[in-house]
Design brief:
about 5% strand, Cytochrome p450-Terp, domain 2, single chain, 3-stranded antiparallel β-sheet, 12 helices, mainly alpha
Length: about 270
């Protein structure tokens, strides 16, 4: 039996990764961001692609006391002997409200672009028309447009313009970003209110323009957040807050048994 892989292997004296000798050709010669993108795409990225990719990683690494960070800190408090449990607890919270928006936005943009027959739009007006149709269809279907709005940054997400600018500087402001920007310009015509393009959404668009499949985008967000969670856990070890969080909730818990519904007898 054979189990083919193009990623890596090892023997008694060497480790091979992506067709290179890990010890002699990769360690000390490439950065972690370059390696991560290379592993995900199986193609060695250009310096321009690496810069955009690492900008996205930095933008998603940590946002303070989010539920994922709190979950990691509380899990560490519960099981201080298993750091991997605390890391995993934080990563498992990467869903539709936190981190998953990166994937959701990339998927949405890819679906819209796949509907275009013929050449893609070139002018802002053409992109706006496509975006307007996409937003209208989402609303008619009763769905949110992923990447729009933010619970904290109500007017503008400070990450959005920076990531777009870096992609432009590196010649990587492709169709996903162009469409996402157009959505930012026209959505109010359909939704009746102006919402900011959030950083997780622009990250998904930028990653999609790098050629990453939509199915991998949440993985990139989790990769970035792992660094932030490690920082949160390290700080928790130095200055713990989890005991206070636990005590606060426990002291203020209100027991309200539902006496109106009897528990059915087991048979």
């Amino acid at each position: 039996m054979e189990f083919p892989t193009g990623i890596g292997t090892s023997d008694a004296s060497s480790i091979s990764l992506l067709g290179y000798d890990l010890a002699q050709e990769l360690i000390g010669h490439i950065g972690f961001g370059e390696l991560a993108l290379w592993l995900a795409t199986q193609q060695r990225p250009t310096p321009q692609q690496v810069r955009v990719f690492e900008a996205v990683l930095v933008s998603l690494a940590d946002h303070g006391f989010t539920p994922t960070a709190i979950a990691a800190r509380l899990t560490l408090y519960s099981a201080p002997d298993a750091l991997q449990g605390a890391m995993a607890a934080g990563l498992l919270g990467g869903g539709s409200r936190f981190l998953g928006v990166t994937e959701d936005t990339g998927r949405f943009l890819a679906v819209v672009l796949a509907t275009v027959t013929g050449p893609l739009p070139e002018t802002d007006e053409e992109w706006d028309a496509l975006a307007l149709r996409a937003v209208a269809e989402q609303r008619a279907a009763g769905h949110f447009v992923p990447g729009l709005g933010h619970p904290v940054h109500k007017t503008a997400d400070p990450r959005t313009a920076v990531i777009i600018a870096i992609a432009e500087q590196e010649g990587l402001r492709g169709p996903h970003l162009r469409l996402f920007e157009a959505i930012g310009r026209v959505h109010a015509e359909v939704l009746g209110r102006k919402l900011p393009l959030n950083g997780a959404g622009v990250a998904g668009a930028a990653l999609a323009d790098l050629g990453l499949a939509p199915e991998l985008l949440r993985g990139v967000a989790l990769l970035a957040r792992a660094a932030g969670l490690l920082g949160q856990i390290a700080e928790e070890m130095r200055h713990p807050i989890a005991p206070d969080i636990y005590s606060m909730v426990d002291r203020n818990a209100v027991y309200r048994p539902d006496t109106g519904n009897d528990i059915p007898e087991q048979c």
